[in-house]
Amino acid sequence: MTTLSIIKADTGGFVGHSSVHPDMLAVARKAVRDAVGDGLLMDGTVSYCGDDVSLIMTHEHGADAEAVHSFAWDTFLRTTEVAKRLGLYGAGQDLLSDAFSGNLRGMGPGYAELEYTERPSEPVICFLADKTEPGAWNLPLYKMFADPFNTAGLVIDQVMHAGFRFEVYDLYEEKRIWFDTPRDLHDLLMYIGAPARYVVHAVESATLGIQAAATSTQRLSLIAGKYVGKDDPVMIVRCQSGLPAVGEVLEPFAFPYTVAGCMRGSHHAPFMPVGLDQAHPARFDGPPRVVALGFQIHDGKLIGPRDLFADPSFDRARSQANEVMDYLRRHGPFEPHRLPLEDLEYTTMRQLEHDMADRWEPLAAPEPVVPASRRG
Ligand code: F6R
Ligand code: MG
Ligand code: MG
């Protein structure tokens, strides 16, 4: 078995939270080259979306492997050093712990890992997003793997016809459940339509019995008990030969659906598919961005990437996202642009409740209504 790991962290922004500095990428690229040279990794590449650096790696250590996670941690310490030296914003933001122990769970960096036996040809797409949360993958995963209006193969490909199995996490109560589509479709949607709490963690083919997709599912705000940065998610999707075709995997992003994140991690805004040269949130720290990096994996080597959203067929999604942004921005601090109180990443509410406690007074009990027949 080979493992494809995407491990990512925000270790400093250039400028503000909008992007990463090229010197940070250079340091990370050297670390990955060395790790390939030392035999720790089969292959690796470094990419980004907004202020997050992603290490995309193939190796034989399995998921949650100490060797690979500690390598990623050390690499993020190095990019943090660069960020500190240049005075970049929020240096080391996602490194929540003082020291590494065992694996990265609960330590800040996000990761998606998929263990697989390489097929004769292995096309894979790595999605990286900024200014949103892991539940942002729920809608496109549903469309790719369960919606025949998106994925023609569900109807006309014999291998896909039996459907897919979704593994869903409850991030609040730390438990999981499986749904087999199409049979459990309506149950699945009841849960994953609430993406702040229920997040698709993995998808498997019913016929092939192989894993087709993996997402990162950490919520930094819950881990740290307070806001420390939006847990910008990553996702791996394998394609073709009985799995959704590359074009079926990209298709859901032609609709710039609304996600939670954007300014201060506290607003709904459209999800904009972009090429790497546009992966820098700007307006209102948004709109949230997603890049799609396509690879052919061959003998563990990452042949690529192809920057799949850098294509005119996604121009309309980008311009529609700008229109939706105009519309939502006009709501200012009102819902549904601003998130409901319980989902805010930043809040002054607790302080306000405290400060204003003695200014609130109970409403007087209503006067009893006397029927007209008994009046006067
Ligand atoms: C959202 C995000 C940004 C920041 C905002 C304020 O995920 O990263 O929108 O929340 O720029 O940042 P601070 O509080 O660091 O000034
Ligand atoms: Mg940041
Ligand atoms: Mg970010």
UniProtKB/TrEMBL annotation:
Keyword Transferase found: no
Binding of Mg(2+) 2, residues: 51-52, 130, 232
Binding-site positions, beta-D-fructose 1,6-bisphosphate: 17, 89, 102-103, 131, 240-241, 264, 285, 346
Residues holding Mg(2+) 4: 231
GO molecular function: fructose 1,6-bisphosphate 1-phosphatase activity; fructose-bisphosphate aldolase activity
EC numbers for this chain: 3.1.3.11, 4.1.2.13
Binding site for dihydroxyacetone phosphate: 17, 131, 264, 285
Domain of life: Bacteria
Membrane spanning stretches: none
HAMAP family named in the record: FBP_aldolase_phosphatase (MF_02067)
Family of the protein in this entry: Belongs to the FBP aldolase/phosphatase family.
Function: Catalyzes two subsequent steps in gluconeogenesis: the aldol condensation of dihydroxyacetone phosphate (DHAP) and glyceraldehyde-3-phosphate (GA3P) to fructose-1,6-bisphosphate (FBP), and the dephosphorylation of FBP to fructose-6-phosphate (F6P).
Protein name, UniProt field: Fructose-1,6-bisphosphate aldolase/phosphatase
Natural source organism: Haloechinothrix salitolerans
